[in-house]
Amino acid sequence: MKIKPFGEAALLVEWEATIAPEIHQQVVDLQAQITSQLANGITFIIPAYCSLLVGFDPAIWERQLLTAQLRHLAEVASDRIAKPTRKLHIPVCYEQAPDREEVMALTGLDWSTFVEMHSRKTYRVYMLGFLPGFAYMGSLAPALNCPRKREPRAAVPAQSVAITGLQTGIYPMAAPGGWQLVGRCPIPIFSADDFLFQAGDAVQFYPVNEQEFKDIEQKIEGQTFNWEAIYG
Questions:
Q1: DSSP 30
Q2: Which residue of 36, 71, 86, 219 sits 20 to 30 Å from the alpha carbon of 54, by its own alpha carbon?
Q3: CATH top-level class of 87-230
Q4: Which pLDDT tens digit goes with each residue over 132-185?
Q5: What is the largest CA-CA distance in the chain?
């Protein structure tokens, strides 16, 4: 693990440059330690695949002292038993898949096989970025590996489920994007108050049909949706 300056008021903590659950768990554990132990003077914490960006108030923290404290907290985090991550079960209507034909051509899979493979695996949320609440999840089975579209869309519908490379994610709002669209989620991913996902979450998708999709949307609009049902 390395810690280096990142501008005048931030430190970048870096681990081995690889995408691996074991490395990312160290990132998440250190984030938790900082949040619980060093709230005063820490301005932001941004986790990524194998790094953690920590912002600080120079009036409260001297850079060398904070560096030493982060090293100590990393040791504490590595010695403890990692707490279980949250697991979220997210409905996806794979019938709403604008890139269905292209994905089948790229993977050589029929659609039912693709859906079964995409929804069978549990994914890890490695980081949030690109858009507020957009969760980068991995890793897809190699057989589902697809490149980005040659021409990105000017507007991807909100809550579209997408893939590219060995990653999958859900667009939290309408925005330009070049990932392959393979379904749509009826649950809002982002609000002004909160994000649905956080780094370290475990996520599994499950297929719903068009009617089930509409039923969930109506329950959310009517404020009768059981949000606790997605956790477990």
A1: H
A2: 86
A3: mainly beta
A4: 889 999 999 999 999 999 999 999 999 999 999 999 999 999 999 999 999 999
A5: 59
CA 129 to mean position of chain CA atoms:
8
Domain residue limits, the chain: 2-79, 87-230
Q: What is the pLDDT of residues 99-118, one digit of tens each?
A: 999 999 999 999 999 999 99
User: What is the tens place of the pLDDT at every residue in 62-82?
Assistant: 999 999 999 999 887 665 545
Q: Which fold has domain 2-79?
A: Gyrase A; domain 2 (3.30.1360)
Q: 82: which 2 tokens?
A: 């990692």
Is residue 1 within 8 Å of residue 13, measured between CB atoms? yes
Contacts of residue 93, defined as CB under 8 A and 6 or more positions apart, other chains included, come to 183, 184, 185, 186, 207, 208, 209, 210, 212, 213
Read off the tokens for 49.
């695949």
pLDDT on residue 20: 87
DSSP string across 101-160: HHHHHHH---HHHHHHHHHHS-EEEEEE-SSTT-EEEE---GGG-BPPPSS-EEEEPTTE
